[in-house]
Amino acid sequence: MKKFILINSVFLLTSFVSQAQTAYISTVGSGNGYSETSPASINQLNNLLADPLIDKVELQPGLYKQTDALYLSNGDHPVEVVGSQRATFTSNFNYYSGSNSGIVIARSNITFKNISFLNTRHCFRIKSNNVNNITLEDITANNTMSCVEIDYNATKVISDISINNLTSLGYYKAGIRINGTNTSNISITNSVFDGLTSSRDLERSCYISGISIAGLAKDILIDKVSIANNIGGIENCGSYQQGDGIMINTGTSNIVIKNTVISNSKDADLDIKGENVTLENITSTSGKEARYNFKLWNNNFTCTDCYISSANSSAIQAINAQVTFVNSTFKINEDTHLCDIRNYDIDDATVDFKSSKFSYYGDLTFQPHQLSECE
Fold first, then answer.
1. CA 150, 156, 159, 162 torsion-angle sign
2. How many whole angstroms separate alpha carbon 192 and alpha carbon 190?
3. How many CA atoms lie less than 13 Å away from 228 in the CB half-sphere?
4. Percent helix, percent strand, percent coil in the chain, to nearest 5
5. Which residues contact 248 (CB under 8 A, 6 or more apart)?
6. Which of 104, 144, 148, 109 is nearest to 128 (CA)?
7. What is the per-residue pLDDT for 117?
């Protein structure tokens, strides 16, 4: 009897594994998608996702032209959507105008790999749907509004989002925008974001940023990321030109930023108002456009093992914030301003340096007179 049960169990397992299959989609597909020789149209992707036996969908190489976003809501079983060689979604989006385009994720347990986006409004967008266990891997984007966006008015539970090896160039608003009132457990790793200062003023939002985190988003990791050239627009944008490498708004919490390089942000490489933000091994190289390296607001911050090439206005602006740099190095010169301390409601802003050094033309023993600005 035990032998029969064992044999039967093995048979059922073998049967289940054999049933799992790959579906196929091509740019000219008109088949049912269940064989490589009969690929389906991209418009059939949502229908294929409803089949629980499909664990992988292969997008064959080519340009997938869009006039509207692709909405994916069917199914809940784990499935991968993978570009063979390089599958590219393309549309007519041009910085601030053009068709709605990209992929709207409205289901859980789905992975996207090896896909490109060119002139699409988004790469991936999550609206107000319960969504979890999403992986975005090996994604490239050129000329989007925001490659990855979680909507500002999202109220449903959005969690466990992994973004790895994403490259987003020439975005209008941001490489990634994270919002929502129940958004948590998001990781952004091994990724590159470049706002491309060569673009014209009209091609950049007033408040451009490499990564923007707002709403009540929490439990977010940013690791091994490079961010550059976030210079906000000028026309109809007010007298104070904006643009941040990483912008974290009030209401957000539990964010770790480490092993990250940020440069040439008009306002600040890091503009942080969130609570419980950890900063480790940050390199802020400023740049010819940069106003501040750090703008830190209303909370306690510690930056450990950080390297700062001081920006044009000041390295640190502390607004009712208590800031400590540990084992960090500041590159300075005669004209460098280290600290811009501002107190609005109460007099509690401080900046302290522990086991940190100041590089004055390579001299790491130098003690700058600008330290008095930080007292």
1. negative
2. 7
3. 13
4. 10, 50, 40
5. 213, 214, 255, 270, 271, 272, 273, 274, 277
6. 104
7. 97
**DSSP string covering 147-189, please?**
EEEE-TT--S-EEEEEEEEEEEES-SSEEEEE--SSEEEEEEE
Amino acid, res. 334: E
- What one-letter code names the amino acid at 198? S
Q: State residue 201's pLDDT score.
A: 65
| Tokens read off for 88 | 């590219």
| Two structure tokens written together for 163 | 């973004």
Q: Is the pTM of this model over 0.90?
A: yes
Token code pair at residue 209: 């940023």
The Cα 240–Cα 327 span in angstroms is: 33
Which of 100, 174, 161, 164 has its CA nearest to residue 130? 161
Q: How far apart are CA 55 and CA 49, in angstroms?
A: 9
Sign of the alpha-carbon torsion through 224, 228, 234, 240:
positive
Phi, psi dihedrals of residue 166, rounded to the nearest 5°: -105, 135
Handedness of CA 52, 55, 58, 63 (dihedral sign): positive
Q: What are the 10-residue block averages of pLDDT along the chain, 375 residues in total?
A: 46 47 97 96 98 97 97 98 95 82 98 97 96 98 96 96 97 96 98 80 84 98 97 89 96 98 96 98 92 97 97 96 98 92 91 96 90 88
CB atoms within 10 A of CB 211: 27
